Amino acid sequence: QVQLVESGGGLVQAGGSLRLSCAASGRTAEMYNIAWFRQAPGKEREFVASITWASGSTHYADSVKGRFTISRDNVKYTTSLQLNNLKPEDTAVYYCNAAGHIWGQGTQVTVSS
Q1: Across all residues in the chain, what is the average pLDDT?
Q2: Cα separation, 94 vs 45, whole angstroms
Q3: Cα separation of 82 and 1, whole Å?
Q4: What is the rounded CA–CA span in Å between residue 23 and residue 12?
Q5: Which of 10, 34, 48, 70 has the least C-beta neighbours within 10 A?
Q6: Which one-letter DSSP state was computed for residue 19?
Q7: How many other CB atoms are found less than 10 A from the CB of residue 49?
Q8: pLDDT band at 29 (very low <50, low <70, confident <90, very high)
Q9: In whole angstroms, what is the distance from residue 31 CA to residue 50 CA?
Q10: Which helix (H) or strand (E) holds 6?
């Protein structure tokens, strides 16, 4: 089993930037795809971005294309999500996900207007 721990959330003004990290441990050899999701208060959890561990192929939700960048470090088994030009509607708890069913505890991102 893979364990995931997110970090890097915080409070930022609109237009600002944050960098989220997801550290993986455990059976990391089984990692195939890492994704970031987010959940705003009163809303369903939604897909943000994903990266294929082996190839580095990335996918993004339309709402974050051009503003967010996902990357991975194969040596340190960490995944990062760079959030630029943040908007108040980006406010949510951001979760790291592995293999579709393994979740981290989440990290809060709050964007003030």
Answers
A1: 93
A2: 9
A3: 26
A4: 23
A5: 10
A6: E
A7: 23
A8: low
A9: 13
A10: strand 2-7
CA distance 24 to 5: 7
Which tens digits make up the pLDDT trace of 48-100? 999 998 889 999 999 999 999 999 998 888 999 999 999 999 999 999 999 88
With tokens 């441990």, the residue in question is: 25
In angstroms, rounded to a whole number, what is the distance separating the alpha carbons of residues 83 and 36?
A: 12
Q: Please provide residue 109's backbone torsions phi and psi, each rounded to the nearest 5 degrees.
A: -120, 125
DSSP secondary structure string, 58-113?
EEE-TTTTTTEEEEEETTTTEEEEEE-S--GGG-EEEEEEETTTEE---EEEEEE-
Length of the chain as a residue count: 113
Q: Report which residue type is found at 79.
A: T
Q: Report d(CA 8, CA 65) in Å as an integer.
A: 20
